User: Fold these one by one.
Assistant:
Number 1:
Amino acid sequence: MEDIILPAVPKFIQCLYQHISCELDRDWFGGYEGIDDTEMDSYIDRYYRCHNPDGTNDGNTTIESLEEEHATLQLVRALATKAIHSCTGQLISAVNFKRNQLIPVQRLPGEVLSIIFGVVGSSRGNSRLPLIKRAPLNLSAVSKTWREVAINTPRLWAKIDAFNAHIAPLFLERSKQLPLQMEVVPISFYASSDEDDEDDEDYPFYYEDDSDDYEDDSDENNEDVGDDDDEDVGDGDEEDVGDDDGEDAEGDTGDAALEYPDDPNAAYWSQMSNFPRFIDPLIPHRNRWLSLMLEAIGINTLARKLTFPVFHLETFHLTSPDSFPSVVPTESTSAVTLFSGVAPRLRDLHLAGYCLPLTSAIFYRLTSLHLERIRYNRSSVHQLLRALDECPDLVNLALIKLVFPPIPPSPTPTVPKPALLHHLRKAVLHLPISSYIIRSILPPPTVQLELNTGDHFQAYFPDAVPNASRIGTLLIGHFPRYFVSGWALGGDEKILDLDFDYNAPRPDVLRGLIRILSFPCLESLVLSCLSTDTIDASTFAEILGSLPTITTLSLSACSLTLAPLIITPSSHLSPRLQTLRIDLTRLGASAIVELVKSRSGLSKKFEPGEAHLNRLILSRCYEEDHQIISELTTHIEVVMEESSDFPFFL
């Protein structure tokens, strides 16, 4: 490469030297270092484009002439460097422009790009990235077209969080008058099961230009890279983001972006520890507040700062981390009134480790309510029910680890008026009075129910489960505690989740469960990890006897003593059973044959309403006896499995 370049360099230098020697005032040479970029461009245009140089060195060899020649050569070198950068920068810009025209995404209409940008900007994955790598700033640095679309898409700028709070004025201006979403939360807040596997380095809208060879050119020539609106602004153009508004976006990221370049959590801790710095610039725009999500903010700070009504706020989340389970605020010492109790449009309220009085007008017409880790010593459970009654459109309800004063005994107990929550879709109740709450809110059969009964099963478990009639598959197990899960008929939607805080085996738990619950449409029953310590033969028989509708039974890692109870005619349990799956329960071949014969019509005549066993699934539990297995396959379908995956739906 040097063999090609070196012969041309002397001619170029000589030509430029002659131009400068002829045209420039010798007295000016000493100040060439002070020439700014505009003057430098002027000289490039003047001499680089000249075609008829005249005048040469007069040959004087005095000290003065040599000094002048030395100064001229230095200027030639500076101008040559600038000329090369300018020329190649324009060529690179032209190439990038043509390249971009061949990329399909560059040909999308601005309206389509705006929609795509909005989806990217609102994703949880975007919020987990460092500021300079997240939308909208990274989108603004791709090309002038993208920059214009991003700047003119207000919803991209309507979210203000801990990491971009230091440039909040820029976001406030570019979001126009759109409602604002404000968040001071750790990065874990943005994690979700759908995005856990997402690799931030492969995030599809984080662009890194592959033209590394041109990085120096474009860095020094941002202002010279063409005039076409569709030209690629090149590498290093992130500093141009914000020029249209008189602000430099990368420059405005300032100290915070440099201090926390790759650590959004550090930015969170900074804003959390100085919440007034975050909220003060936003208070004048409170008429635009749409959502406010805060974590681990001091209650006294909140009481001082959030004293005004919020007439447009729809979502308010105020939480303390789950890592502080011992911090359970008491109502009498920690309850505060925020927003002057005025938030008429509030629909989503989430309080965890913070207490607001249940008598507050904020508890009105909510569609989502989450209360967690609060000790009420002034408000009663009846006040909670009255608050729920004020929310007839409630869709999601979560009451977790709440403590209320005990309900005083009365010879004529007052039954509160039920809160009719016909729109309730999901209820999560982890508190001792779950049964009382369920009886008092009358949830619809379509509700998805999650209960934790604590360690007082008989006292606090509900008398009936409102969605029991929808459950088609039921799982009962003990690992490491008792649990019950239910799935809807004809699908894999989980609509029931019961958890019992019994670490020690208690067979009476399962017996009590069956006595108080009814599943009239149950088709499939799964028993998992039930040993002789957790379930005995009589309890197993009682469970099957109370569920006569099941057609599929699965035993996984269960006691060997349970399978013989399925054999008829000694037992008439599960008369409609058609499919049996035995997993990790090592039965002998003879026991399997006897079981199949008793259920397949080989040894008895079935009564009306009884069904034949027509499918047997054996997984990691049988003895090798191919002759017996071959004999069984002539009567029923036998499936041999070695997979460790245990399917609930057969």
Number 2:
Amino acid sequence: MKSWLLERVFPFVLNCTYYLMPSSWLTKWRNYTSGSGKNTSSSVEPEVLDPVIDALKCEQHSRLLESPPDLMNKRGMLIQKSSSTDALTIITENDWISFCEEWGGNKEKGIMAIIESSDVAESNLGGCEEDMPRCKDHPSSQDEASNDPEIRQPVIRTTPEICEDCIGERKSHELAKKLNYFNEDISVSLVRGKEAPRSILEASSATSETDRRASKRSRKTSYGTSVNLKVSGSTSLYRLKMMIWELLGVVKENQILHKGSMIIDQESATLADLSIFPGDKLWVQDSEIHEHRDIADEIADQKANAQDPEKGFRGTLLTTTTKSPAV
């Protein structure tokens, strides 16, 4: 297992059996094992392995609650794609056995993983644990992964299988939590011309970091003017368009608002309904179809409608003076 102290990345071989471990547990183990002197006493000892592995499986279906990490081909080597957000890390079968012996794990309860090419994975959808070939030794060569020109997107097949239902439900809760925000920053850029530059399309398609302070003041860019706005998940698209009108001078009816390449419409919808997150970068075009008018006229109309809500129903039964019974 010394390879895990010295090498955080090692090449994989297709059709070999590996195991998945919680990345957080491995980090804790690495810090504890590599500590020396005073650092050893201050390092937190990793938990017993058996309940840690059990926690990776859902109680309802006994399936895997986390998706396996992504793989990448780097200079002919098939390796795990480095990401700080990966919940799981791939280890060799020998390392898994050693972990079980030293940290109270059950060898038979491990999360097995086999790396296959996409076409092989499709033909093995009905396979079972016994079908999975095993490599007893740490692979010293990656010829299988690099010599086949057809291998572009290898697939990790796990036993137990991934629980799509539970993962989907958890992601739905996480998404709802992210969209329940208040007084956060987004930016809107006014783009002149028929097409947005590639740089702003890419920025608009990705969610930006939200931990930086942003000024509401507009600023000039190479493609137009950009402003930062304070919004909430409950902010309506109508309200956002009014803010854009006020700061960028584009009449509400002329605004063609985009997130990436997608046009955002439906003025009654909220930003949460439209999956607009804190830090998002939107861009707007001016269709110039409608004549420019003062935003004060729109605000005055709003106030008039708010003061006389029955104005549009005069002459109909909806204006009856009959009192409704108390509820």
Number 3:
Amino acid sequence: MQTRGTTSRHRFVRPVQTLSALLLAVGLALTGCTGASDSGASSTSADKAAAPGEDAGAGAQSGSDARGGKGDQAAAPPKLTTHIIRTASLTVQVKDVPKSLDEARTVVENAGGVVGSETTDRDSKGHERSRVVLRVPSDKYEEVLADLEGSGKLIDRRAKAQDVTEQVVDVESRIKSQRASVARIRELMDQATKLSDVVTLEGELSSRQANLESLLAQQVSLKDRTSLATITLSLSETPVKKAAEDEDPGFVDALAGGWDAFVTMFRWIALALGAVLPFVVGAALLLLLWARFLRTRLPRRPAAATATAGAGAGAGAGSLPVAPPVREEGGERD
């Protein structure tokens, strides 16, 4: 009988404990000290004590739902920091290139940036021009860009933005994994007893350390390019406008114009002669060759007859003259 009484008392105690837990949870909810998660947790504990098995699983699910209702912000994963590589190129026309270049340096240094490579030269017309690479913090990028644009007449502006957040996260994750891998290899080396195992582990350690160093170099490069924006500034000198000339030209102007025309005409004549001269020389050579060819082809009879006539004349000059024959008349014949 005592055993039955004790059992019955235990049966009555469990509902009382459950009811007390529920009342306590309701009271806490009404006072605002805790949220719905505490009541859910209390009810879950009571359900677990009252009905194990499937009821316990259902209680755990209700408890997790209650904990989720405590605050979505606390359960949500932290937002990733955006990493963006910003680059821009500006072409500005200014009156004084050296002065504008000094002003650009001052703007960049005041913003916490640095001045990179610089190139200065002159164009075919003698106008000075400079090209300089500027590195500025990403948070000062827009401000510095606006100041540089306002230094003169903006000719060209190009800006690019490349999001490398995924690449940065990937590199960081690979660095962590690689560091853990290197640490494991070192532990194995400490535990190795055979020389062959030590040699194998040393080769593996060298390979993984090389990969780790490569990843660290990528991380440094990404950090540099995302923390500092790159601006390429090109400054060109404004061409000086010529003074307006008088409407009525004077004697000096006419003389200068005539001289320019004369020089221009002489230049064109020289150019024409230079262009025609090769053809003239070629034609003269062809005519000379043709004349020599004709001489070799002509017959030499006239030359021989002339030589014979000359020889006869020389022989007659050395002897007495011969009288021509006398023709007889008709009467004398009879």
